[in-house]
Each structure stands twice: as structure tokens, then as C-alpha cells.
Amino acid sequence: MDTIYLIIVGITSFVVGAILSFILKIKFAGNKARKIIQEAENEAQVIKKEKILQAKEKFLQLKTEHEKYISERNAKIAHQENKLKQKENTFHQRREEFQKKQKELEVSKKEVELIKKNLNVQVEIIEKKNVELERLHREEVERLESISGLSADEAKQQLIESLRDEAKTEAMSYINEIVDEAKMTAAKEAKRIVIQSIQRLGTETAIENAVTVFHIESDDIKGRIIGREGRNIRALEAATGVEIIVDDTPEAIVLSAFDPVRREIARLSLHQLVTDGRIHPARIEEVVNKTRKQINEEIIEVGKRTCIDLGIHGLHPELVRMVGKMKYRSSYGQNLLQHSRETANLCAIMASELGLNPKLAKRAGLLHDIGKVPDEETELSHAIYGAKLAERYKEKAEVINAIGAHHDEMEMTSLISPIVQVCDAISGARPGARREIAESYIKRLKNLEELALSYPGVLKTYAIQAGRELRVIVGADKVSDKDAESLSFNIAKKIQDGMTYPGQVKITVIRETRAINYAK
Questions:
Q1: Beta carbons within 10 angstroms of residue 482's beta carbon
Q2: Lowest mean pLDDT among 53-67, 139-153, 369-383
Q3: Among 196, 243, 228, 223, CA closest to 426
Q4: Considering the entire predicted model, what is its pTM?
């Protein structure tokens, strides 16, 4: 019982203590709440005062802006009123001027009506006079027609025909005088221009061969170039496309090929191989490929340098490269680039003498043989193919025509075309500039003589002046003078159509009549 009592007392005291603690906490929370409420009320009062002040400031600002707006509005209204007053004054002034002009117009209208009446009277008088003049003119024409026996239209036609015949006669006389004068001076002037152009330009003439001699220090190197069982020389020939001739010639190897580019690649490759000392098929192929790239780069550089030297600008890169390729091409042994440069300079000089465009002529002269260095196989002649290349790369029409017409394969449409043709012939005709193989040269001369001998009445033929003139001797009893002229024309036509030759061939037919007697 005592234990239970003690437990009850303990529980009771714990509960009472908890209740008292709870009551104290409630009392403390109430005080804190009252304090928070008081602080909130104070802050609300402060915020209220601040808002009232802000509202007053905003009101004052709006008031100021409104007053400013009102003053500006009043100023604009006053300005508009002033403008309206000015317009009103202007309107009144213009109205007064209009009324004044209207009165003046009424006065002028009356004056015009008076003038119009006077004009009508004068017109009636003039019409009557015109009718009278026409009647008199008709009577006069009828009287003249009766006297002359011709109508007016017939007389007019006769007068026109008479004047036309007289003008035609005078024009023909004038044309004949001009033609005669031109014939007298043209040949002399042409010779002067050609000679002056040639004298002003001097160039070297060197004949190119189809072989290149490669010099070596000793004959021991020949064996290394040939290689074991000839493998090195076979590899070199296969890589370059050049025939390599190793014979008993001391300290020399001959490189033979019709293509100068191949010969140059072979020469440079051999030089590098001999200098390096390593000569075997793999090394040969590597060196040849490297040399070929160097030559291609050199070709482009030569083309650019040529254009700069001649002052030719704006040339297409492909045409520049083809100009560089000319360095390694020849025509009848004459270096093609040297020939083209010489032709270009001659064209510029001759065009200047004739008052034409020297730059355009020089451009056409440089490109006239561009068809001789094609990148592809073609059946066209080099002149036509060159014109197509120039057209493809957007050259001017005058240049295209000069390229295509310099061998008379196109019709000449520009004055530059005959200049290019003449300068091309001048460059190729310089002594020592071109050569022919002896066998083909002799064969061409024989063909010329045999062609002329095939005609009836021909007794003898002689090809002279290196094949530039053919003299044909005919029998006087078989060929008349008229037939001799026809024979000369026919032989020239057949040579032109059936043979290939540089320059031109002069055909001279000689018909000689001999009367022989003996005095005894």
C-alpha cells in the first residue's frame, strides 16, 4: 500500500508540474505575441507614412508634367493660330492677284478675238492667191510640156539619170586615181614597214636537232648506265621514252627522241643519276618522276616569264602553260617559243607603224602557233586547233581570227590577221632559222619537177632557189602564150593542193621562139 501511495503521489506531482509548466509557456507565448503585434503595428505606421510621402511626390511630379504638357499644348496652338493667320493673309493676296489676272485675261481674250478675225481675213486672201498660183503653175507646166514634148515626170527622170551617170563617171575616175596611187605607193610602203620591222628586231636563230649528246667523265660510267644484262638502260628508256645510244664515242652518250621534252627529262635524270652514283631500276624511276615534275613546273615558269617580258597580261593559266611548252617544241628545227616571241615583237612593231593596237597584235603573234603544243591528239590543223583553244579560253575575236587565218584556213576578218601571217613568214624566212632533212628536201624538189613534167608540151623543169621557184620550159610549137599563162596557173594550183612546202613557190613558164639561119 505504501508503494502504491508513493507511486500515486509521484504521478500526481509530475502531472501538476507538467500543468504548471504548460501554463507558464502559454503565458510567455502571450507576452511574445503581444510584443510581435506591437512591432508590426509600429512598422505598419512607418510604411504608411512612407507611402503617403511617395504618393505626395508622385502627385507633385504628375502635376508638374501636366502643367508642362499644358504649356507645350498652348504653345503649339498659338503657333498653329499664327500659321493659319499667315495662310489666310496669303490666301487673300492670291485671291486679289487672281481677280486681277482674270480681268487681264478678259482684256486679252477680246484682243485675241480681234486678231483672229483679222487672221481669218488674211487666210482667205492667201488661199485665193494660192489657187491663183497653182493655176498659173499648171498653165506654165503645160506650156513647157507642149514645147519640150515631155511630161514633167519624164523630164525629172531624165535629169536624175543624167546626174546619176555623171556622178558615177566622176566616182569611177576618182576611184581609179586612188587605186593607181595606192598601187604606186602600197608596195613601197609595205617594203618599208617590213624592212623597218626586221631591222628593229634582231633575234638569234639556232637549229634544233633530234638528238642530245650527254657528256660523261669516263667510259666506266657507260657500264653502270647499261647495268647488268642491260636492265638499267632498259628501265631508263621505258621511263623516259628516249632511245639511249651507248657506242664507241669517247666520253659521250647520245639521247635520241623527236620530243625535246623527253630528251630534256632524260638528260637531267641521267645527270642526277651519274652525280648521285646510285643507278638501279627503282632509283631510275624515282629520279625520272621527280625530274618530270620539275620540268612541268619550269614550263609554267617559262610561260609566265615570257608573258611578263612581252607585257601580255590576263592570259588564261592553260594558255600560259602552253606558251611554256613551246620552249621544248620546234618547227623545221626552229625553236617554237623563240619563233613565237619574235613573231609577237614583229607584230607589235608593224601594228604600231600601221596605227593599230600593238598589244593586241603582240598577243595574237605570241599565240599564233599555240595549236602546235596540244595536250590531246587531234586531226585538226594547228591553226584551226589553236583558234579553238583561244576561243575556249575567252580570247578576243581578233586574236582568234588571227590564229586561225595565219595559214589562210579561215577568212580574215581583222587587220591584225594579215599582220600575224606576214610576221610568221618573216620569222620563218630568216637565213638559218629553219632546216629540212636532206632526203625530204631532195624528194620535194624532185616531186616539183616531176609534177610540172607531167603536163603536155613541157620540155624541161628546174627547181631553183631551194625549191621556192619552179621554172618550166615549154615548146613554142606546142604551147601558145595564152596556154602558157593557163599552164602556170594549173601547176600552181596543183602544187598548192597536193604538196606541203614552207613559204610559197613561184612558177615561171618560159616559152621561147628561136629563128636560126646561117650566112655562107
A1: 8
A2: 139-153
A3: 196
A4: 0.47
